[in-house]
């Protein structure tokens, strides 16, 4: 949802801003722009289109400025256009800013500002912010910001500069913003990966923080102007993790990283004879727990469906999950003692955070499962379990999804032990399954030629179905989402038994049905459902851990694995299928149309 980058130091700022924007482009890519100050003159260059279009515009530019701000946009208010692109400037062209978030009271503020003589040129909510700051500006940017933000309602991460002062001012409210600390230079960005080529030392701004960056130092203050002590942390992520490293797309690279990611997620949590997930240890609460409430969106929500199954199966524990945008506004019978589990790759998804705050208001302890250190989910939860997937750049979530399910499985197993439901033999059995998982993930990846072959057939169709029962149904839901998202083919997921209640009407000659089967007990039922499809001309592609002999289906045998582990392996299958189909369709894989990673608006 829009990417922000800023730099102040001794180096020419333009290439730093452009490279930073290229790294942030997965957050939005409908327009891009930069602003810089040189000899007291403010210059703004912006355009509709990608960061590459901006870079083309700047090719002949001779600017040598050493500080500035940049933005890549995912439109909310106002169509993608040169005018609506950020940065936006004040009437006197002395102040400018970039924004990630939504200003909710922008209409009232706009009318008010117009009546005070301000002129607007864009349709954005952001433009009112710069005029509001201009109204209070008397030569000190942070003072104007402290006053100006009191008029704003909504979510905003802002980076501002003035032509009259050599500094960058940042503000964070409900949208992420990170400071990067260099030698004689400071950076800011919407996320850590954008900063990795320059520095590993970062400060994660907290709710309401205002930061002032200068060449040699930075300062963080609160909304009353009081200085705050902040911690500079050193990230363990490496710059190469945020690069394609020879892969044609980030998505493929991230799919292929999964054996390592799964190994990393298991590290120190599974020994020869013990499962340990200290982060999930809520002491005496666990044996008496009556319920778990999940909060998540999109792919992370699909991981929680599997998480719910884990808790029910392994812990005999009731769990409720629903997409966060619905759950946050629903009234349900609130049971106690219960725990909230919030799952989010970015840790910044607005609706997911909405559920988190609601659960906190209801005084439930909350465990956050996230991939990003210092993210809102990690800060606002009582406990955080990190997925250790490394930076996920592709908009379509892959390695974060499988590592979320793995963490949920570890959590369910450790709670199962606490609730006396996991005996020694069972624990040893799961340890063995978990240790084999990264190798089995590699075996799935080794079948990539097969997925490519199937993708070549799928690209010819407009509609396809995904089918499964129980955990395989959750895989089907994620499979259909991934296929729609990156290949733009229309894909629908159904529980095996549901097809005949309506959608079977759409099955005709050669309609592809991608099916998953990893549960022996329901295999006969699924096979009957396949017959229903086949007798209407549908074409079954079956991905299964079972030994099924059926010459009329296309069967891909997956590595044998426990039923509860299979959703993780199936994750790789559905990702490879979607990836190769999108590639065959010539789609823009890492940056699908209309989508952005990290959805920080409702
Ligand atoms: C789909 C996808 C999205 C995200 C969703 C939640 O491939 O990536 O559905 O899963 O926007 O994002 P996080 O996990 O960052 O909260």
UniProtKB/TrEMBL annotation:
Active site: 2, 597
Main location as per UniProt: cytoplasm
EC number: 2.6.1.16
Any one annotated GO CC term: cytoplasm
Residues covered by the SIS domain: 282-421, 454-592
Coiled-coil intervals: none
GO molecular function: carbohydrate derivative binding; glutamine-fructose-6-phosphate transaminase (isomerizing) activity
Catalytic class of the enzyme: transferase
Keywords, alphabetical: Aminotransferase, Cytoplasm, Glutamine amidotransferase, Repeat, Transferase
Compartments it resides in: Cytoplasm
Gene Ontology annotations of biological process type: carbohydrate metabolic process; fructose 6-phosphate metabolic process; protein N-linked glycosylation; UDP-N-acetylglucosamine metabolic process
SUPFAM superfamilies: N-terminal nucleophile aminohydrolases (Ntn hydrolases), SIS domain
Signal peptide: none
Glutamine amidotransferase type-2 domain ranges (all copies): 2-216
Quaternary structure note: Homodimer.
Biological role stated in the UniProt entry: Catalyzes the first step in hexosamine metabolism, converting fructose-6P into glucosamine-6P using glutamine as a nitrogen source.
HAMAP family: GlmS
UniProt name for this protein: Glutamine--fructose-6-phosphate aminotransferase [isomerizing]
Organism in which the protein naturally occurs: Psychracetigena formicireducens
Gene: glmS
């Amino acid at each position: 949802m829009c990417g922000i980058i800023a730099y102040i130091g001794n180096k020419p700022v333009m290439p730093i801003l452009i490279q930073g924007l290229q790294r942030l482009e997965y957050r939005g890519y409908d327009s891009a722009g930069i602003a810089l100050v040189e000899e007291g003159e403010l210059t703004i260059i912006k355009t509709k289109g990608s960061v590459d279009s901006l870079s083309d515009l700047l090719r002949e530019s001779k600017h040598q400025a050493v500080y500035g701000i940049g933005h890549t946009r995912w439109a909310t208010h106002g169509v993608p256009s040169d005018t609506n692109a950020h940065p936006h400037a004040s009437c006197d062209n002395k102040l400018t800013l970039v924004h990630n978030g939504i200003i909710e009271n922008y209409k009232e503020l706009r009318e008010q500002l117009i009546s005070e003589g301000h002129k607007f040129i864009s349709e954005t909510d952001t433009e009112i912010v710069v005029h509001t700051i201009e109204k209070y500006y008397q030569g000190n940017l942070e003072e104007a910001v402290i006053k100006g933000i009191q008029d704003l309602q909504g979510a905003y991460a802002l980076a501002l500069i003035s032509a009259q002062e050599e500094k960058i001012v940042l503000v964070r409210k409900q949208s992420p913003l990170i400071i990067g600390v260099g030698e004689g230079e400071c950076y800011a960005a919407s996320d850590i990966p954008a900063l990795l080529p320059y520095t590993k030392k970062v400060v994660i701004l907290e709710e309401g923080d205002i930061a002032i960056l200068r060449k040699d130092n930075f300062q963080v203050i609160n909304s009353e102007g009081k200085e705050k002590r902040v911690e500079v942390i050193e990230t363990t992520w490496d710059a190469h993790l945020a690069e394609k490293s020879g892969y044609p797309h980030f998505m493929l690279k991230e799919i292929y990283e999964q054996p390592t990611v799964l190994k990393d997620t298991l590290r120190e949590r599974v020994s020869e004879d013990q499962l340990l997930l200290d982060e999930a240890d809520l002491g005496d609460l666990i044996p008496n727990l009556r319920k778990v409430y999940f909060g998540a969106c999109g792919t992370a929500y699909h991981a929680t469906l599997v998480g719910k199954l884990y808790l029910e199966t392994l812990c005999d524990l009731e769990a409720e999950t629903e997409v966060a945008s619905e759950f946050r506004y629903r009234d349900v019978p609130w049971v106690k003692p219960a725990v909230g589990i919030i799952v989010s790759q970015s840790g910044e998804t607005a609706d997911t955070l909405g559920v988190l705050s609601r659960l906190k208001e209801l005084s439930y302890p909350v465990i956050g499962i996230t991939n990003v250190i210092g993210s809102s989910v990690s800060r606002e939860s009582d406990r955080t379990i990190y997925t250790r997937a490394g930076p996920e750049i592709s908009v379509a979530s892959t390695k974060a999804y499988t590592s979320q399910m793995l963490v949920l499985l570890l959590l369910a197993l450790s709670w199962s032990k606490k609730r006396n439901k996991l005996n020694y033999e069972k624990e040893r059995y799961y340890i063995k399954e978990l240790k084999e998982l990264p190798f089995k993930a590699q075996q799935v990846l080794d079948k990539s030629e097969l997925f490519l072959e199937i993708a070549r057939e799928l690209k010819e169709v407009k509609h396809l179905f995904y089918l499964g029962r129980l955990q395989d149904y959750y895989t089907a839901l994620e499979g259909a989402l991934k296929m729609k998202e990156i290949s733009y083919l229309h894909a629908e997921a159904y529980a095996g038994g549901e097809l005949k209640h309506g959608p079977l009407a759409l099955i005709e000659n050669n309609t592809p049905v991608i099916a998953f089967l990893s549960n022996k007990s329901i295999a006969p039922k699924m096979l009957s459902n396949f017959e229903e499809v086949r007798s209407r001309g549908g074409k079954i592609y079956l991905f299964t851990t079972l030994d099924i002999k059926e010459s009329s289906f296309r069967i891909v045998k997956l590595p044998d694995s426990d039923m509860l582990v299979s959703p993780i392996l199936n994750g790789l299958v559905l990702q490879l299928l979607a990836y190769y189909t999108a590639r065959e369709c010539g789609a823009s894989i890492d940056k699908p149309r209309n989508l952005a990673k990290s959805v920080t608006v409702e």
